[in-house]
């Protein structure tokens, strides 16, 4: 089976696009990725498209109508916040199987206004279990469980927002490019203790796309900017003897990471950077441990050390992350990979991680799906 390479990557600037459709945004990102690869849509054997709120509207086919219909298969996927990683995973399989030499993965979303919720729970409502089924409350509860077990402080959670907002000032495509000192983060509106408004992901529109090819095709195009997919892993939450309506954002990420490290033949010590699913500041702290970036219970000390900031031992969310770059749900998983690709190519200017050769991207879909991809400079 062929190795799989990414040869084209594009993310449009995240923000609000009241006068454009989600498929127009997807088309812009797709054309940018194709141009980056030196290919046209006629070179593509299949399209894998991801969205969440626009999931039932044939995104892939509508993107093709914008950029040139070709009759190729379009596979439209929806997997909550893991939708983009799911599309890339399916694209990876399409190349790995030998069916296609070149495919397009595109994620696009126009998020509704206001606070975003998850899919409705079936069975007993969780309201009495942890106060609310809203996403801020769910991740606030997860953070407080960590705080109770390991002494993680409000200031440590808030430092994640300080770091990621600082990183975003160096990303021209981030939705919000503003420094937020610790005092400002702590003083912003309380949404769900310990999460203030500036510790919650930015609700925006956006799109991102990748072109994946076989090794044969990559060599034809030239390997100088190619990025190898060392691992592509997508899992659902493993069985645990727990209350079935409780939300678990840890075990599913731990499983995905373990399987991805095994596929890649690497470990967390080999990573040069990470783009992870910081839907809330508490989530980033939890995922430091879930991805093996530090030992269990050490995440608070890791953020205090500065190791996860640009220039540190293992920079995390140098793009600005979901907190500041933005979180257009169906596009997020693809966008995280675009950042890693551009970092490994050395093309991101002042936010460049020096000497980056191996990077990991991660997304979490409602606690029931996780995608982890490990990429390597060719």
Automatic annotation (TrEMBL):
Cleaved signal peptide residues: none
Span of domain Thiolase C-terminal: 253-376
E.C. number(s) listed in UniProt: 2.3.1.176
Pfam family, one: Thiolase_N
Keywords: Lipid transport, Lipid-binding, Transferase, Transport
Annotated SUPFAM superfamilies: Thiolase-like
Record domain Thiolase N-terminal: where: 4-110
Database matches in Gene3D superfamilies: 3.40.47.10
PROSITE patterns: THIOLASE_2
Name of the protein in its database record: propanoyl-CoA C-acyltransferase
Species in which this protein is naturally found: Novosphingobium anseongense
């Amino acid at each position: 089976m062929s190795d799989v390479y990414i040869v084209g990557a594009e993310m449009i600037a995240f923000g609000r696009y009241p006068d454009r459709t989600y498929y127009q945004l997807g088309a812009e990102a797709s054309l940018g990725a194709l141009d980056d690869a030196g290919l046209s849509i006629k070179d593509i054997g299949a399209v894998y498209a991801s969205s969440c709120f626009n999931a039932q509207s044939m995104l892939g086919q509508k993107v093709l109508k914008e950029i040139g219909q070709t009759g190729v298969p379009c596979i439209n996927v929806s997997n909550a916040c893991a939708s983009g990683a799911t599309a890339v995973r399916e694209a990876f399989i399409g190349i790995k199987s030998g069916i296609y030499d070149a495919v397009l993965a595109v994620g696009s979303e126009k998020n509704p206004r206001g606070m975003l919720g998850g899919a409705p729970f079936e069975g007993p409502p969780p309201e009495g279990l942890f106060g609310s089924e809203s996403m801020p409350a769910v991740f606030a509860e997860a953070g407080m469980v960590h705080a109770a077990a390991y002494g993680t402080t409000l200031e440590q959670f808030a430092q994640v927002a300080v770091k990621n907002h600082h990183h975003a000032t160096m990303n021209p495509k981030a939705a919000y490019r503003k420094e937020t000192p610790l005092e400002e983060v702590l003083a912003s509106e309380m949404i769900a203790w310990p999460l203030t408004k500036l510790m919650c992901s930015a609700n925006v529109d956006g799109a991102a796309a990748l072109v994946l090819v076989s090794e044969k095709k990559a060599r034809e195009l030239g390997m100088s900017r190619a990025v190898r997919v060392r691992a592509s892993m997508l899992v659902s939450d493993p069985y645990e003897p727990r209350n079935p309506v409780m939300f678990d954002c840890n075990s599913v990420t731990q499983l995905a990471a373990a399987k991805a490290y095994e596929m890649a033949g690497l470990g967390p010590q080999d990573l040069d950077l990470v783009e992870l699913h910081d839907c809330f500041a508490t989530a980033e702290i939890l995922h430091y441990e879930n991805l093996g970036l530090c030992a269990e219970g050490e995440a608070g000390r890791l953020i205090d050390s500065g190791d996860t900031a640009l220039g540190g031992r293992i920079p995390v969310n140098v793009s600005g992350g979901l907190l500041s770059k933005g979180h257009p749900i169906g596009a997020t998983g693809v966008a995280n990979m675009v950042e890693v690709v551009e970092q490994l190519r050395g093309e991101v200017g002042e936010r460049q991680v020096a000497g980056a050769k191996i990077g990991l991207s991660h997304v979490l879909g409602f606690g029931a799906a996780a995608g982890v991809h490990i990429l390597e400079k060719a």
